């Protein structure tokens, strides 16, 4: 692992703490952050086949490591290639199905240029899925189901997040995301 990978991991985990947990965007992130059960894998490739092989290796890592609750696959070199990233997401979901991981894992995705279809780039609502780097979140479905059983009105989470971030405002939440890059390497 390079020093650059370590810095990217620190920045990613700062984003999880300072945005995702702070605003409760994901109802189970705080517990896993505190337990240190979030695995962060940084991949430099932009080659689709290689990335899919690496994502598959992360499925296997989760299969064999119960102490990892969730994995963030960070792909920094796809930062400026949102369409390529979306293609990767489609193929990663196909891979999930082909490897018989449906119902075991599910994928969520975030990107620095994330923009919902019905919004503009300047809509703060997009920060529910904006991250410092392109990433695929591999979620254990059974863990998520446990949390959602005790979380009040889980179907309201997306709307609550959108409303909250719009109240914060685009400039404020953008500044908070940019602050995630201010970390020191170990």
Word description of this protein:
- This protein has 186 residues and is of the alpha+beta class.
- It has one domain (3-179).
- Helix content is 49%, strand content 12%.
- It contains seven helices and four strands; from the N terminus they run H-H-E-H-E-H-E-E-H-H-H.
- It has helices spanning 3-21, 29-35, 48-64, 82-98, 141-150, 157-168, 170-179; strands spanning 38-42, 70-74, 105-110, 135-140.
- Strands 1-2-4-3 form a four-stranded mixed β-sheet, with helices on both faces.
- Helix 3 links the parallel strand 1 and strand 2.
- It starts with a helix and ends in a 7-residue tail after the last helix.
- The mean pLDDT is 92.
In brief:
This protein has helices at residues 3-21, 29-35, 48-64, 82-98, 141-150, 157-168, 170-179, and strands at 38-42, 70-74, 105-110, 135-140. By secondary structure, it is α+β, with helices and mostly antiparallel strands. The protein is globular.
Summarize the topology.
Blueprint: H1 3-21, H2 29-35, E1 38-42, H3 48-64, E2 70-74, H4 82-98, E3 105-110, E4 135-140, H5 141-150, H6 157-168, H7 170-179
Helix pairs in contact: 3-4
* Largest β-sheet summary: 4 strands, mixed
Strand content: 5-15%
The largest beta-sheet arranges its strands as: 1-2-4-3
Morphology? globular
Into which percent range does the helicity of residues fall? 40-55%
Find the structural class using helix and strand composition.
Answer: alpha+beta
- Please provide the count of β strands: 4
**Total number of helices:** 7
Low-confidence stretches at least 5 residues in length (pLDDT < 50)? Answer: none
Please tell me how large the radius of gyration is. Answer: 16 Å
Overall pLDDT level: 92
Tally of structural domains: 1
Distance between the termini: 13 Å
Encode the helix/strand succession as letters: HHEHEHEEHHH
